[in-house]
# Entry
Amino acid sequence: MIIMRKEIFSRIVCDPDILSGKPVIKGTRISVELLLELLANNWTHEEIIENYPSITEKDIFAALEYSLSLLKEEHIYIIPQEAIA
# Structure
């Protein structure tokens, strides 16, 4: 399932009054981080939806796409050991 960028950001929101501004599924207190953790712990989409009925399949894919977009923008810089000392 491909989710357009506009749809991702209509499903994922950051509000300083909800979970200290962590990205969450709109209208819930369910964080993108929690969804990723559940998936990493081998939960199926069906198990997530069954245990968190306010979540939809599109929300799960939006969380994955949101995370992917952050990783695509991430830059890692190697600092030589000499520079640390």
Observations:
- Strands lie at 12-14, 23-25.
- The mean pLDDT is 90.
- The first strand starts at residue 12 and ends at 14.
- Residues 57-73 form the longest helix (17 residues).
